[in-house]
Design goal:
about 325 residues, alpha+beta, Peroxisomal Thiolase, Chain A, domain 1, 15 strands, about 30% strand, globular, binds coenzyme A
């Protein structure tokens, strides 16, 4: 793919609430079991935000770490994109991250695409760099879906956890590109499969003015439909990004999928012919943290020096919308390979 300006992925960071909730703890009030949750999803525990945690503060910590790893000063950041479906302000939580970092020259805004949000934000951020509009961008994926699930609905609440993570992305010297190819898709006809729908409470302001007061219903999901969608569509977009780049699955160092379900990871890997050793997973400890899963996993793998500079990573996000996409990434900056 011809690129105006190359991209380099040069830093990562993550922050999670401290409170760990195991499957056994969930079964204290839900009709569920560790065995059911582990065998159907691979999830053993998740982090849950307490009333003292905040999405904006976790996002800021993650972004700060990514910024430091990249070696930037806060005033050098041009753009902060926060992918989230659970902002603490519907007008946008990204400006709070900007303020916490002291990134006085940046513009900051939210992007909503559910569990595809981080991947969509990464691809969006890359366009600002390629066009020359920005040189340094922080892309944050963060969600506290524990505040939006029905904790009595065992079909959904056991799946989700809370977290925030970030990646630093900058213009690269000629000849290097950390975002080789990408695909983004949505199918709004199937949006009813997974929703956190608007709910209006009527309010009578006076005899001739009946307005509404906004709110949201808890997460509702058709689990089997979402499962089928993921195992069908994700391998297709991953194959597409590999073909666009003229590469094969054997050339990948890592498969980094949205962490929704261990069985989805295994099925996608099998369809692509990627061995289990190259499939990154931290589902067991975090569950599905929505927009945070991909950068959270990426950060852990970078910290553990599993992902190293120059490694080729195929990543795919998928979820509500329905939305899905894939990107072929190369980690690091050219001088560090
Ligand atoms: N604990 C115990 N039993 C549960 C349960 C839980 N947490 N959740 C559901 N069950 C029960 C159901 O009530 C049902 O019981 P029944 O047969 O008596 O009615 C039984 O388990 C099977 O339910 P089913 O929905 O068919 O299970 P499943 O094998 O499809 O697994 C999911 C459910 C949610 C794990 C699976 O569909 C899935 O992972 N889907 C994708 C969801 C996802 O990843 N969403 C996010 C995308 S970003």
């Amino acid at each position: 793919m011809s690129a105006a300006v190359g991209i380099a992925l040069t830093g990562s960071g993550a922050a999670s609430p401290a409170r760990v909730v195991t499957n056994d703890e969930l079964s204290l009030w839900l009709d569920t079991s560790d065995d059911w949750i582990r065998s159907r999803t691979g999830i053993a525990a998740r982090r849950i935000a307490t009333a003292d945690d905040s999405l904006e503060s976790l996002s800021s910590q993650a972004a700060q770490q990514a910024l430091e790893q990249a070696g930037w000063r806060p005033d050098q950041v041009d753009l902060i994109l926060l992918a989230t479906s659970s902002p603490e302000d519907l007008f946008g939580s990204a400006p709070a991250v900007q303020a916490a970092l002291g990134a006085s020259n940046a513009v900051a805004f939210d992007l909503t695409a559910a569990c595809s949000g981080f991947l969509f934000a990464l691809i969006t951020a890359a366009q600002y760099i390629r066009s020359g509009a920005c040189r340094r961008v922080l892309v944050v994926g963060a969600d506290l879906l524990s505040r939006w699930v029905d904790w009595q609905d065992r079909r959904t609440c056991v799946l989700f956890g809370d977290g925030a993570a970030a990646v630093a992305m900058e213009a690269a010297p000629e000849g290097w590109d950390g975002l080789l190819t990408m695909v983004m898709r949505t199918d709004g006809r199937r949006r009813g499969c997974l929703t956190m729908a608007h709910q209006v409470t009527p309010q009578v302001l006076h005899d001739h003015l009946h307005a509404g007061f906004g709110g949201f219903r808890p997460i509702a999901m058709d689990g089997q439909e979402v499962y089928k969608f993921a195992v069908q569509q994700v391998p297709l977009v991953l194959t597409q990004v590999l073909e666009q780049a003229g590469l094969t699955a054997e050339q990948l160092d890592w498969l980094l999928l949205h962490q929704a379900n261990e069985r989805i990871l295994a099925s996608v890997a099998q369809r692509l012919g990627v061995p289990a050793a190259k499939v990154l997973s931290n589902l067991g400890s975090y569950g599905n943290t929505s927009a945070a899963t991909i950068p959270l996993m990426l950060h852990e793998a970078v910290e553990a020096q599993r992902i190293r500079p120059g490694h080729l990573i195929a990543s795919s996000g998928f979820g509500a919308g329905l939305s899905w996409g894939a990107a072929l990434l190369r980690w690091g900056r050219p001088d560090a390979t």
